[in-house]
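Hi again,

Forgot to attach this to my earlier email, sorry! This is the prediction with uracil bound. I've pasted everything inline since the attachment limit keeps bouncing my files.
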Amino acid sequence: MERLDKRLANTRKWSRKEARELIRAGRVRVDGGVCRTPEQKVEETAPVAVDGVPIAGGGPVYLMLNKPAGVVSSTDEPGERTVMDLLDEGYRNLGLFPAGRLDKDTEGLLLITNDGPLAHRLLSPRRHVDKVYYVEVDGVLDGADVEAVRAGITLADGTVCQPGELEPLPGGRAAHITLREGKYHQAKRMLAARGKPVTYLKRVQFGPLVLDGDLPKGGCRALTEGELEALFRQ
Ligand code: URA
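Structure tokens for the complex follow:
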């Protein structure tokens, strides 16, 4: 256990005096609750955030990002903007990484965390975590496509895609597709194999997490307690 003002000062971003002022001003949260007492003792692992931004040394961080098109899902890729570039400064040195990948032109829900074991579990091919995408295609999706996706599509190069679910929306030019694996360009390659190339792709669900409709493109927020519980139950 150590004092809250010391914990803040340890980051070297603030002096002890500045830390005390921040705390008294109600800008510091411990375990999600505002703490106005600089001498309050906090666990080394307790998550501490200043103005909503977690400080290093706290517990693991879990963020929902609404990925825009044009950024890559990695921590560092020369010559490319990455999803990490979208995060606030305060998230920079926490060892965060995207749990899974979306193509550069794919939008939507990406979990950003520094919890390696959880990410490993969620991404394990044996776990079959459902991923739901909103997709638009060049063509009209019909019952034969629904059946083909349900049966499992074999791509031209012999790659076998496990059964998924396709739910065309009225008109058939858009659909929701649920996949339980994460093969390279999987949704695009499956629908291209049906002669209906994807023109737009957005992930709207990852396991129990549903993309927050209030998150602007490029925006992120911490997962709620309920979302975290559901994720750990997954
Ligand atoms: N399938 C794709 O083709 N691309 C993605 O980004 C995700 C799923």
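The mean pLDDT is 92. Residues 35 and 56 are 18 Å apart (CA to CA).

That should be everything now.

G.
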